[in-house]
Design brief:
The chain is mainly alpha-helical and about 525 residues long. The protein has 23 helices and six strands. It has a six-stranded parallel β-sheet with strand order 3-2-1-4-5-6, with helices on both faces. Strand 1, helix 18 and strand 2 form a beta-alpha-beta unit. Helix 3 (about 45-60) packs antiparallel against helix 12.
């Protein structure tokens, strides 16, 4: 990219982040500004954008499991929402046609309605990652719905292009048979450089190239390859290794949206009209999810993360324009509506918890009496010790405290697969989200609690849980982990005992070495070593 493009993207992203908005909104603004200034789009920008989206889908795949996609609340909610959205937007566009804002036939309206029914994968995953909620129940639901939407989009694009997949495409169903080979490949990649290249190889070569040759959507190949190695022990490390590269490349994606062009007044009015219809699309998400017994909070947060139009909408519209099904002006209109939806959804997701609390009194009537098992109240029985976050630190604390408190120790973690592993190991661990503002109101028999340990890796999660404890009048002891001095001070100001991971790990390491070597601290350093 040229120096002007990089500079403007940086300063716009910086300015918007200082205002409390995600930098991606600034990148969109930079794209519009560059187009308005007449700066040509760099040739490499679209390539960079495509690479960013491909790596994003690959990293999504690393966190997905097939069993999560075949759940009724995922595929059922996606199907119902897609049908309802297409019908709703078709009626909405027809109404705009009566006002003279839209021209064309019902066939073109159906294509546009189909394009508008999807939500942005890039935006939702970015927001969930920034909040650390990709593994939460609502985060898994949102990502699962997005993946199912991508599958519907792939089917549409495949048949709309008028070309059938290659005759050997069904052979791709046998890809799981290659999982042992892919696992062995990752076993050999012991350092970060090789892991980065392994990720690029799996996404770009094994995934994109293979699916493109089969006549299928290339990005779907990256997603599938990510899912193929999601169960490997190095999947998390691979995702972290690719994180910075993916973030940098996605800047090109958001810039490219803004560079699509500036609208004239009628196009801008039409885009605004589409944005005004967006709350109804978001409300439809909530209503559909409530049908499957999900709580108000889960439905609201998942719906807000999906409260955008989709980059796939642009692809569908471009294909429709190429086929002569709709005017090319729809491309610019959808691009503008997409950009505005990003700008509006960003603060909504930043303040999602406050939005949920304001909406709860009006939405509680939609909550079913019998809730989904994954979203039901949590009974902690007579637990005296509660540990939030059953990672390595939480697990170590659990095992130590069990010797003192016996079966009165209970662990809580939001990752269902991790909870299953702990239960198989004989630990009492339940699925729960400590950042859920309803969590403490759902706990039963919590009067026995004496000690709460906040061992979650995300400082904001620990802080949020501590604030909820204080608001609900908990008088027992609270301890938390932290990594940095400012985090320590923030927790100590709330009267919480804090364990500084980095400081205590260093001190513990020194004590361990001294014990092994049976050295006293006064023994001089041996110069001959």
């Amino acid at each position: 990219m040229s120096a002007a493009v990089i500079a403007l993207a940086f300063f716009c992203g910086l300015a918007l982040s200082r205002l409390g908005l995600p930098p991606l909104v600034g990148f969109l603004v930079a794209g519009f500004a560059l187009h308005g200034a007449g700066i040509p789009t760099p040739d490499s920008l679209h390539t960079i954008a495509d690479l960013g989206v491909t790596l994003l889908l690959f990293t999504i795949g690393l966190k997905l499991k097939i069993k999560n996609l075949i759940k009724p609340e995922v595929w059922g909610a996606t199907t119902l929402h897609l049908i309802g959205s297409v019908a709703f937007f078709t009626v909405g566009i027809a109404s705009l046609a009566l006002l003279g804002l839209v021209q064309g036939q019902i066939s073109s309206w159906l294509v546009v309605a189909f394009a508008l029914a999807f939500s942005s994968t890039v935006f939702a995953v970015k927001v969930l990652e920034d909040k650390g909620d990709t593994s939460s129940l609502y985060g898994r639901l949102a990502i699962g719905i997005l993946v199912m939407q991508d599958i519907f989009a792939v089917l549409f694009l495949t048949f709309a292009q008028g070309k059938m997949p290659a005759f050997w495409a069904p052979a791709l169903l046998a890809l799981p048979l290659l999982r042992p080979v892919l696992y062995k490949l990752l076993d050999w990649c012991s350092n970060s450089e090789l892991q980065s290249l392994a990720g690029l190889f799996l996404a770009m070569v094994a995934g994109v190239s293979l699916f493109e040759a089969a006549g299928l959507k290339p990005d779907l190949g990256a997603l599938v390859m990510g899912m193929m190695v999601a169960g490997h022990s190095r999947a998390d490390a691979l995702s972290k290794t690719l994180f910075n590269l993916k973030e940098l490349l996605l800047v090109g994606f958001f810039l490219s949206i803004g560079l699509n062009g500036l609208p004239d007044l009628p196009m801008l009015l039409l885009a605004i009209a589409l944005v005004l219809l967006l709350p109804l699309k978001t409300g439809l998400y909530f209503w559909v999810l409530s049908l499957f017994g999900l709580r108000v909070r889960t439905g609201v947060l998942a719906s807000l993360s999906l409260a955008t139009y989709s980059e796939f909408g642009l692809i569908v519209a471009a294909l429709g324009a190429k086929a002569g099904l709709l005017s090319g002006q729809w491309l610019t209109v959808i691009a503008i509506a997409l950009s505005i939806s990003f700008a509006l959804a960003s603060p909504l997701n930043t303040w999602a918890e406050n939005v949920y609390r304001r909406l709860t009194p009006n939405l509680k009537r939609y909550e079913k009496r019998h809730l989904h098992p994954d979203d039901a109240p949590i009974d902690i029985g007579g637990a005296k010790v509660l540990i939030f976050g059953m990672g390595r630190l939480g697990t170590g604390a659990y095992d130590q405290l069990k010797a003192e408190f016996g079966e009165a120790v209970l662990g809580i973690d939001h990752a269902a697969d991790k909870v299953g592993e702990h239960q198989e190991a004989g630990r009492q661990v339940l699925v729960g989200d400590a950042t859920d503002s309803d969590f403490w109101s759902k706990i039963r028999h919590d009067e026995f609690l004496e000690l709460v340990l906040l061992a979650m890796p995300n400082h904001h999660g620990n802080l949020f849980a501590a604030e909820e404890l204080k608001e609900r009048g908990y008088k027992g002891k609270v301890a938390a982990v932290a990594k940095f001095p400012d985090e320590v001070e923030e927790l100590k100001a709330m009267g919480i005992e804090v364990f500084n991971i980095f400081e205590e790990a260093g001190a513990g390491f020194a004590r361990h070495v001294l014990n092994i070597a049976r050295l006293g601290p006064q023994r001089p350093y041996h110069q001959g070593l």
